[in-house]
Design goal:
The protein has 363 residues and is α/β, with parallel strands linked by helices. The strands form four sheets. The protein has a six-stranded mixed beta sheet. Helix 4 packs parallel to helix 6. The longest helix has 46 residues. The two termini are 29 Å apart. The model has no long low-confidence stretch (mean pLDDT 94).
């Protein structure tokens, strides 16, 4: 499934709680259509999306895979750009409900394929393991929140050590030079994640940039103090000039730190390289030291080093707990899998895939 697909997370286990951009992964006012899947764990939501992704690719459509941050082997979303279509898991913790039912969104209820009586017989067990899973995710949030406080402290310290005016001049010059003016056109911003805290550790989809963008500007910035200014400037310039952009947020502090700005029409990517996101050495790099006061950095180096090490330990705790939560989630899935009529679901998936992939697109 990985051969030619862009990958993004639509949600993040962050220091600000679970942050979701599922509901704004489509635009009802621009001809988009959303298929919102409802159903329990193990009811085939991910398999349904994977099936349609393969069919879409076979027909030559550009499909974007959106893995689940709590189980990156599963899909939480599928975006078919050519058809202005999204298929998303609309269940908790990224609950999505139709705003314009039928006119834009359609609910796909996979609950019609399960045996309700079989699930009811196991209600006590299902409730018990579900609550256990919720408790583990609460612990995960505590670990990530504590780690994010340290990440933010290093972010503030690195920003204080930088020559802000010099950074701003560089960002403005780069944006003016690389983002040409264009005719009047409505801008559009999509918000996503390329990095996620998962049961398998921190996963980063740098291939999405390297395979699909030709002009890549890498800012080597461990703590984000410099790169965030650059990203904000690039974002404002691109939007003011009418481009569609993908704003990629930091998984620890999505409301405070922007990691990357991608401009598909220009095949241009401004990206931040740090501990959890690396890129091939062939790309042009802007190093943090160009903008920093070395003496100021030395004065806070011990604190920065302590923060980084402590954050790593906390993240290890988060990952281990997420792994336990994944094992409990697998237990929940077994009850639903045993209650599903997958034969009927497969027949439905084939019919629905043809319907979705054959629809006309409003321009």
């Amino acid at each position: 499934m990985d051969k030619a697909f862009e990958k993004y997370f639509l949600g993040a286990n962050s220091g600000e709680g679970f942050v979701s951009h599922f509901g704004d992964s489509y635009n009802c006012f621009d001809g988009w259509r959303a298929f919102i899947i409802k159903g329990g764990p193990g009811t085939g939501k991910s398999s349904f999306m994977k099936y349609i992704a393969v069919k879409a690719a076979d027909r030559g459509y550009e499909a974007v895979l959106c893995p689940c941050s709590s189980d990156p082997d599963s899909l939480d979303g599928l975006i078919i750009k050519d058809l202005k279509t999204v298929i998303i898991d609309g269940t908790a913790p990224h609950t999505v409900e139709p705003v314009y039912p039928g006119a834009c969104e359609e609910i796909i209820n996979l609950g019609v394929f399960w045996n309700g009586d079989a699930l009811y017989k196991n209600a006590e067990k299902i409730i018990s393991v579900t609550n256990q899973n919720k408790k583990l995710h609460t612990a995960v949030s505590a670990y990530i929140s504590a780690a994010s406080e340290l990440v933010y402290d290093n972010f503030r310290l690195s920003r204080q050590c930088a020559d802000g005016k010099k950074v701003e001049r560089f960002a403005e010059n780069a944006a003016q030079r690389l983002i040409p003016k264009k005719a009047n056109r409505k801008p559009r911003e999509w918000v996503r994640f390329l990095c996620g805290i998962t049961p398998r550790g921190i996963i980063a989809y740098s291939d999405t940039v390297e395979k699909f963008y030709k002009n890549i500007i890498v800012i080597d910035d461990k703590y984000g103090g410099v790169s965030n200014t650059v990203m904000n400037t690039v974002r404002e310039t691109a939007l003011s000039r009418g481009y569609e952009i993908i704003t990629v947020k930091n998984p620890f502090l999505p409301s405070k730190i922007t990691d990357h700005i991608l401009i598909p029409e220009l095949s241009l990517a401004f990206v931040r390289e740090y501990e959890y996101m690396s890129f091939s050495k062939q790309y042009r790099r802007i190093h943090l030291r160009r903008f920093t006061d070395i003496n100021a950095v030395r004065a806070v180096r011990n604190r920065i080093t302590f923060n980084r090490r402590a954050a790593r330990e906390l993240l290890l705790g988060a990952v281990n707990t997420l792994s336990k939560a994944k094992a409990v989630h697998d237990e929940i899935e077994k009850y639903y899998i045993n209650a599903m009529d997958f034969g009927a679901l497969t027949r439905f998936a084939e019919e629905k895939a043809n319907q979705i992939l054959s629809r006309s697109v409003k321009q």
